[in-house]
């Protein structure tokens, strides 16, 4: 009896020891940023080594025959490897669960990456919720001022987020590519509340969000919750991209939380070149930065393109002012600092639209190059009503030019223009635009 207990205790100690070393060995051996670490000595001094590649995680568990392959959500039975098959009889009580480092949703409904708990901790992440059938944790990587990220997916927040920040400073996140195959960053502004532009020319002269090191990105300010941007990182070299939030002055509660996703060159979610914003789906809504139908002002110094993926079997696209929204690119005339002037309606063409305008290639009011009234389609639209023809009210604008794209040009000025001045559109109290789009089926 005593002998039986001794034998049992002996096996428990051995297996505990193996468990520790297997688990510790796993953490030690994992590939971090591509730098493989040396292998430790295993049980009884025997050297053993397993290689865990980026993109997969492994978790050793005590099986006791209670873990069934079918209990793992999204994990095939082939992913369960009995270590004993490789490493001898002492490992026979352990199973290694292997799972991919896929995207996952955290308890706070943010996007994370599925890692083992040890891996998440070793990489400096925060675990929130379970994934991989409970064998992994949904891991997020949050950064704030002065830090550097090497992660596929990161969050960049103000100091002490979710508390706000009120002060003068320059808060930077350095984003290093995780591999040479990264071509773009996608920035999702979950929260982005900065000081509004100044009231004369709507320039961002106090606060700015700036991107450097990649493709040209317009500086923005004000409120941009829910907006996004794509930044080209360039194929050559691994120079980092820097995200900077400049804040100037006190008396305003800034807050930001930006998701930074690295996009591989061959990713299906990658935006076409030259697209600052990229939308998919048959229908959707596009808005100018700092859009707010009642109080937000159109930002000056904006030059960028919004692209919409052409969905299968759709050949044209129709735009209209979104329900309850506004469209105010230029105008009105004759206003003052305290009173709105006379609305100018929809204006078209490069002669008239020469300060701020949208470019929608061959925009028409009937989906054909020749519009109603026998005028040709227009590329350049402005005014304070949205239409492809000169009229007082907004209408539907259709184009069949693909790829579907809306290019924004807002100059550096917003000024009150007297009604006596012709051929210069008023630029005062403009709100920018909110447009709904719906793709139109091919008809031939
Ligand atoms: Ca302007």
From TrEMBL:
<keyword id="KW-0732">Signal</keyword>
<protein>
    <recommendedName>
        <fullName>CUB domain-containing protein</fullName>
    </recommendedName>
</protein>
<keyword id="KW-1015">Disulfide bond</keyword>
<feature type="disulfide bond">
    <location>
        <begin position="204"/>
        <end position="221"/>
    </location>
</feature>
<feature type="signal peptide">
    <location>
        <begin position="1"/>
        <end position="20"/>
    </location>
</feature>
<dbReference type="InterPro" id="IPR000859">
    <property type="entry name" value="CUB_dom"/>
</dbReference>
<feature type="domain" description="CUB">
    <location>
        <begin position="145"/>
        <end position="259"/>
    </location>
</feature>
<dbReference type="InterPro" id="IPR058698">
    <property type="entry name" value="CUB_metazoa"/>
</dbReference>
<dbReference type="InterPro" id="IPR035914">
    <property type="entry name" value="Sperma_CUB_dom_sf"/>
</dbReference>
<dbReference type="Pfam" id="PF26080">
    <property type="entry name" value="CUB_animal"/>
</dbReference>
């Amino acid at each position: 009896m005593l002998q039986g207990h001794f034998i049992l205790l002996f096996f428990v100690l051995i297996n505990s020891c193996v468990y520790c070393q297997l688990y510790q060995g796993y953490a030690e051996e994992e590939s971090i940023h591509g730098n493989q670490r040396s292998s430790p000595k295993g049980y009884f001094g025997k050297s053993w080594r397993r290689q865990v590649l980026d993109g997969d995680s492994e978790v050793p568990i005590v099986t006791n025959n209670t873990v069934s392959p079918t209990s793992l959500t999204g994990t095939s039975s082939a992913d369960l490897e009995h270590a004993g098959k490789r490493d001898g009889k002492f490992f026979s009580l352990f199973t290694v669960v292997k799972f991919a480092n896929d995207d996952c949703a955290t308890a706070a409904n943010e996007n994370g990456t599925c890692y083992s708990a040890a891996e998440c901790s070793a990489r400096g992440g925060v675990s929130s919720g379970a994934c991989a059938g409970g064998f992994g944790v949904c891991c997020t990587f949050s950064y704030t001022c002065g830090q550097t990220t090497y992660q596929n997916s990161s969050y960049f927040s103000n100091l002490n987020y979710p508390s706000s920040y009120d002060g003068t400073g320059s808060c930077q996140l350095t984003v290093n590519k995780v591999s040479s195959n990264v071509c773009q960053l996608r920035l999702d502004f979950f929260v982005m509340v900065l000081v509004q532009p100044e009231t004369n020319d709507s320039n961002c002269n106090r606060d700015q969000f700036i991107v450097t090191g990649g493709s040209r990105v317009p500086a923005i300010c004000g409120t941009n919750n829910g907006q996004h941007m794509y930044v080209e990182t360039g194929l050559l070299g691994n120079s980092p991209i820097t995200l900077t939030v400049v804040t100037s002055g006190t008396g305003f509660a800034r807050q930001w939380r930006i998701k930074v996703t690295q996009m591989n060159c061959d990713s299906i979610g990658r935006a076409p070149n030259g697209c600052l914003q990229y939308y998919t789906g048959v229908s959707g809504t596009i808005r100018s930065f700092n859009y707010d139908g009642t109080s937000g002002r159109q930002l000056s110094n904006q030059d960028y393109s919004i692209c919409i993926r052409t969905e299968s079997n759709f050949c044209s696209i129709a735009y209209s002012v979104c329900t309850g929204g506004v469209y105010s690119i230029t105008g009105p005339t004759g206003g003052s600092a305290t009173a709105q002037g006379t609305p100018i309606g929809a204006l078209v063409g490069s002669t008239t639209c020469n300060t701020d305008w949208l470019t929608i290639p061959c925009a028409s009011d009937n989906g054909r190059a020749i519009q109603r009234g026998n005028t040709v389609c227009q590329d350049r639209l402005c005014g304070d009503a949205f239409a492809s023809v000169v009229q007082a009210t907004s209408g539907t604008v259709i184009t069949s030019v693909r790829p579907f794209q809306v290019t924004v040009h807002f100059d550096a000025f917003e000024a009150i223009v007297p009604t006596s001045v012709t051929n210069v559109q008023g630029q005062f109290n403009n709100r920018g635009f909110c447009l709904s789009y719906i793709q139109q089926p091919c008809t031939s």
